[in-house]
User: Which sequence fits this backbone?
């Protein structure tokens, strides 16, 4: 699939995001070589050159955790999280969700449609948690 869910640009204009493009191409901003030799800076520079379709959960967690390219990346992350809120990067189960939840309050105020999608992810998580807790309680009652 070449195109994914719409994302929101400045002024709430809806567009289709092309998964064959990189963040550099979509934002028309080419950073060149990193001028600071930290592993995080080097990794972020590399990820900006990957196509969106190549970004995995860990890549999204890292970039969103740095509050980078949120307008493009949050819809991709939220689409994945609505299917499974416990999707994970390399840190721990659910770390992608936690990264999204740490996005600044001001961003959500300006992007209400994405905030609604986040609320859907939260509802999905709460339903999954409730179901699991019920099954765990039943298991403990029946087997312990």
Assistant:
């Amino acid at each position: 699939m070449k195109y994914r869910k719409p994302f929101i640009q400045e002024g709430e204009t809806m567009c289709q995001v092309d998964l064959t493009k990189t963040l550099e191409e979509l934002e028309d901003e080419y950073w060149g070589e990193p001028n600071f030799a930290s592993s995080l800076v080097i990794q972020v520079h590399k990820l900006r050159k990957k196509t969106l379709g190549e970004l995995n959960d860990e890549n999204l967690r890292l970039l969103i955790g740095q509050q980078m390219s949120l307008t493009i990346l949050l819809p991709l992350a939220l689409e994945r999280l609505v299917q499974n809120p416990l999707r994970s990067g390399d840190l721990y189960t659910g770390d992608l969700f936690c990264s999204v939840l740490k996005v600044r309050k001001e961003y959500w105020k300006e992007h209400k449609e994405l905030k609604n999608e986040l609320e859907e992810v939260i509802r999905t998580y709460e339903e999954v948690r409730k179901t699991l807790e019920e099954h765990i309680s039943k298991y403990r009652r029946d087997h312990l």
